[in-house]
């Protein structure tokens, strides 16, 4: 971290702003944590295709070792 502190003026500015301003800190934390979490959740919901017919076919055609491993889980 000391390399960032010594070389990067943007890093120093960011550290000073988050240290001195609570609203900026909470805004920065929101942008870094909450926004990616919400975007990731909606991307997963959008790309998760639940197809009951495909699921039934995969279960029907499963190999015996797969059936045994799912039985014990």
Protein topology:
Blueprint: H1 2-7, H2 9-20, H3 22-47, H4 52-60, H5 64-72
Compact summary:
With 73 residues, the protein is mainly alpha-helical. The protein has five helices and no strands. Keywords: Membrane, Transmembrane, Transmembrane helix.
Query: How big a fraction of the residues is strand?
Result: under 5%
The largest sheet, given as strand count, sense and whether it forms a barrel, is: none
Task: Give the H and E element order.
Answer: HHHHH
Structural class: mainly alpha
Structure description:
This protein has one domain (2-72). The chain has helices at residues 2-7, 9-20, 22-47, 52-60, 64-72. The relative contact order is 0.05. It has 73 residues and is an all-alpha fold. It is elongated and about 60 Å long.
Tag the structure with descriptive keywords.
transmembrane, membrane, elongated, mainly alpha, 73 residues, 5 helices, transmembrane helix
């Amino acid at each position: 971290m000391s390399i960032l502190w010594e070389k990067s003026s943007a890093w120093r500015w960011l550290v000073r702003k988050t240290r001195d301003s609570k609203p900026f800190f909470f805004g920065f934390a929101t942008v870094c944590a909450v926004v990616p979490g919400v975007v990731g959740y909606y991307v997963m919901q959008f790309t998760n295709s639940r197809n009951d017919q495909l699921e039934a076919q995969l279960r029907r055609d499963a190999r015996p070792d797969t059936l045994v491993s799912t039985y014990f889980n």
